[in-house]
Amino acid sequence: MWTTVASWLFAITLLVISAALVTWAIHGGIRMASAIEAEVEEDQARPEALAVPVQRGAQDDGDLIAEPGPAPPPPDGPPAWLQRPEPDYPREAIRARVEEGEVDLSCVARADGRVAFCTITSEIPEDYGFGREAVRAAHDARMRPARADGEPVDARIQFSVRFRLQ
Hints:
The protein contains three helices and ten strands; from the N terminus they run H-E-E-E-E-H-E-E-H-E-E-E-E. A hairpin with a 7-residue loop joins strand 2 and strand 3.
């Protein structure tokens, strides 16, 4: 009788351990296995190389001496990604075996570099959590702010987040 009870306990223990390992593999492995791309309009502003005036020094027989001038203000232009959104693959999509999704977002790139006030403009397929995960990740992303007259300003941005389960 004790061998039957011990056998059942051993079998239950193996099932619990197997379930824990599968859960760990799904939750730990999905983040590494999902490929996420975030796209934003191409940054048109390109920082120009600093031009430093150079003159010949009278005392140094031809050595070049650089005269530093005031630094030019940063160029005006649209925001650019410093840290792109990195969403987790939604659990609902994993359970339903949905292998890809796409979310279009409209957000505000704040003057302090944060991304805020995101709204979902499109989510394909719906009801699997792709939009929720894209918005959560967008709020964790960072941007170089847009500039106007050399000052950082808030700017409306639109971008897509693509999910692919690999």
